Amino acid sequence: xxxxxxxxxxxxxxxxxxxxxxxxxxxxxxxxxxxxxxxxxxxxxxxxxxxxxxxxxxxxxxxxxxxxxxxxxxxxxxxxxxxxxxxxxxxxxxxxxxxxxxxxxxxxxxxxxxxxxxxxxxxxxxxxxxxxxxxxxxxxxxxxxxxxxxxxxxxxxxxxxxxxxxxxxxxxxxxxxxxxxxxxxxxxxxxxxxxxxxxxxxxxxxxxxxxxxxxxxxxxxxxxxxxxxxxxxxxxxxxxxxxxxxx
Length: 247
Prior knowledge:
Layout: E1 3-9, H1 14-26, E2 31-35, H2 42-48, H3 52-56, E3 59-61, H4 64-67, E4 73-77, H5 95-102, E5 108-113, H6 122-125, E6 130-132, H7 145-162, H8 171-187, H9 192-209, H10 213-246
Parallel strand pairs: 1-2, 1-5, 2-3, 4-5, 4-6
Helix pairs in contact: 1-2, 1-7, 5-7, 8-9, 8-10
């Protein structure tokens, strides 16, 4: 996974700076650069909450060039895009598309967020390798800078979190679960004319749920134990009836 540097270009509201520091803490981002920021007051630290260390350690630089040093990829964010391929500087990726493209990148990536009033300048956009845009209502497409940062950082975080997803069960394991379910229907004397439809319904339900391998084994264990208990009780009940007849 790459390393990310969040760069705020000439932010004018220190409350937004604090809110972005908080969002960075929420999603495990640490490196914050501020290009010619406004004065940082107590309000910023209040907004940062438990991420005050990120705000306190933020690097303040004079120019954007200083902020993007050592970065192999520079990413601009914008609320303004264009459908025209001729204006290639304004053709964006969505946050999800961008996040998916970065998962194999091992370098340092700078994420640029522009000013609250007019965003990144044309000159600043020219320094960017990629433009990211958050799709929103055509009636009000521009998000607050801290909200935009939250969405983009979340999507990047989610890509990294996917590497920790549980192992999916194999086809053989899935079919074994359906065999167990069929045995359960037999054990409880489920009506034969409804059995096939119920088995299909169960298959669709499991397919939509996409359980992990561990969850499959747990479910099979519960169903298997239920089948054994039902059959054992039926067998013991029949034996008791036979003994009553003999007496």
